[in-house]
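go over both lines:
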Amino acid sequence: GKDSYLTTITINNVYHHGGNDPYGTYGEGGGQDGYGYQGESYPQEDDAASDVTEGHDDEDQMYEGEYQGIPHPDEVKAAQRAARAKARQAQSGATELEELAEQYEDIMEDCGHGRFQWTLFIVLGLALMADGVECFVVGFVLPSAEKDMCLSNGEKGMLGLIVFLGMMVGAIIWGGMADKLGRRKCLIWALTINCVFAFLSSFAQGYGFFLFFRLFSGIGIGGSVPIVYSYFSEFLQMDKRGEHLSWLCMFWMMGGIYASFTAWGIIPRYGWGFSMGTEFQFHSWRVFVLVCALPAITSLVGLLFMPESPRFLLENAKHDEAWMILKNVHDTNWRAKGQPEKVFQVTHIKAPKTQEDEFIEIQSATGTAMQRWGVRTLTLCKLVGPVLKTSPTNGTHVITRGGQITLTPLRFSYYGLGVWFPDMIKYLQQEEYDSKVKVFHRERVEDFRFNFSLENQIHKEGEYINDKFISIEMKSVKFEDSLFEDCYFEDIKSTETIFENCTIRATIFYNTDLYKEKFINCKLENTTFHHNKKGCHLDSEEENDILIYLVSFLGSLSVLPGNIISAMFMEKIGRVKIIGFSMLISAGCTFFLFLSFSEAAIIAWQCLFCGVSVAAWNGIEVITVELYPASKRATAFGVLNGLCKLAAILGSSIFASFVGVTKVVPILLSCTALVCGGLVALKLPDTREKILQ
C-alpha cells in the first residue's frame, strides 16, 4: 500500500496570547459548520482522490495509471515536498518567512482545490467584473448625459478621465491598506464606497456633483484589482495558481459584455425615466448607472460570508484564526469530494515573530479621533515607498521596474486604442454623412409653413419671408448669409444648427432651443425670444448609435479566446513567454491598421488586438502576484495598477487628439510601446514553480 503524505507540522508557536484566546469563537463549529458551503459539489479534480481514508483497502483500490507506469498524484506531491525539504535543509540561512511559505504550500496542497476555491472564485470574479463595468459606464452614458446636463467638450473630456483618475488613486490606497488591515476587510470597504457613490451619481442633477460622485466611485472600485488577485492567490496551491488566476481574468471581459448589453437595452428607452418638475430629471441613462452597480453589490454580499486570507493572518502572527480558516477550507473541499472522513492533521503553524506594529495608535485617552486617523494615514503612505526599494535578492526589484516598463505601454496602447477605435469609426461615419450634405443656394421661400424636419443641409444667401417653422427638428443645418423677415419659429428642437452672417428682422422665437449663441455674426432687428427651452434635451434615439454598443461588445467578447489560451498554457509555456510574445503579436496587429480604410476593417483589427493582448495582461497579473511577498503583495500590485491607470489616462488623451488628423502617430506610438514592453517582458523572471512568498 501507499504511505500517507499528510504530515503534522509541529513547529513551535512564537505568538502567545497569554491566558485568553481572542480567536476562541472564530469559525466556531470547526469543519462541520465553519463557513458552511453546502451547495452542489464541483467536479472532482484528478489529483483529489486519495486512498489514505478509512474504509479503503489498498489491495482492492488500484490506481488505474499504475498499469501504464504513471505515478500516482500523491506520489508526485510527496516527491515535490521531499525535494523542497531537501532544498530547505541545504539553505542553512532560511528565514522564518521562507519556512512559513514552504509550510503554507504544503497545507494548501493538503486542503486541495475544490468547492471553497470555486465559491471564492465567483465572489471575487464579480468584484473584478465590477471593475470592468466601471471602465465602460461613462463612455456609454456620455452621449445622453451631455444633453441632460448641457456639457461642453471640456467637461465631457474631464468626465471621461475622472474615473481613471479615481481608480488610479484607489489602487494605490487600497493596495497599501490591504497589506495592513486585511484583504477581505479592505475589499468590502472598497466595494461599499463604489456602490454608495455610484448610487448617488445616478441621482446627481448637476455636472459638479456627478463628477464628484464618479470620482469617489472610481476610488472605491480601484481597489478591486490589486486586492482580488492577492486575495485569491493565497488560497491556491502552486500548480494551479497560474491557470486559475487566468480564468479569473475572464470576469473583466464579462464586465464589458454586461455593460454593453445593459446599455443597449436601457439607455435608448427614454420612457423608462421620470421627472419631478423641471429641476429633477431621471432619464433612462441614470437607470443604466444603477444597474451597473449590481455586480459590485452581489460581490459585496458574497464577501460577508468569506473568511480573511489565512496567509495575511499568519504574516500578522494570528495563527489561531488562520488555523481555523484552513481547517474549514480543508473540510469544505473534502466533504464536497465525498471524503468527509479525511482529517485536517495540522496542529501548529509557524508564525513569524512580529516587530512593533507599524500602525502607531494614539489611544483615545491621549488623542482625538482626527489625530488617530492622521497617524494611520501617514503610516499607510509610508508603506508605498519601500515596495519600490525591495531587496534584489527576492527578485522583486525586477518586477517593479520591469513590470512598470511592461504594463505601462500595454495599458497606454490598450486604452489609447480603445478610445481611438470607436472615435475613428465615428469619424468615418461623419465623413460619409458630410459627403451627402445638400446645399441650397439663393432660394427664396415666401408664405410657407415648414412642417417637416431639416437635416444635413446648408442654405446660402436665401430669403425667407413670412414663413413659419413649427414643431420640427433641425439637425446639422446651417444658414449662411440669409435673410429672415416676419418669420415665426415655434417648438423647435435643434442639433448642430447655426445661423451665420444672417439678417433676422421682426421674427419671433417661441419655445425653441435656438439661443442667441447659435446666431454667429447675425443682425437681430426687432427680434424676440419667448419661453426658450431651459437646459438641454435628449435627441432622437439614433444619436445613441447602436454601433457604440456593438464595438464595445465585440471588443470584450474577442478577449475570450485569449483568456482561454492563456489559462490553458500559463503553466505549460510560462508567464514570461506568454507576456512577451502576446505583446509582440499585438504590436503587429496595430501596424496593420495602416491598411484599414473601412469601419469593418477597424472593428476586425480591434477584436484581434484585444484577443491577443489579454494574454499579456493575464501573465503580468500572475507574475506580479507571485514575485512579491505577502507583506507587500497588495501594495505592490496597487502601485503598478495605479501607474497603469495613469498610462491609460495619457493614452486616451493623446490618441483622441489625433482622430481625424492622422492615424500614423497613434499606430506608431502603440506599436513602438508594445515592442519595447514585449522585449523587456522576456527578461522578467519566470515564476511557474515558485512558492508564494
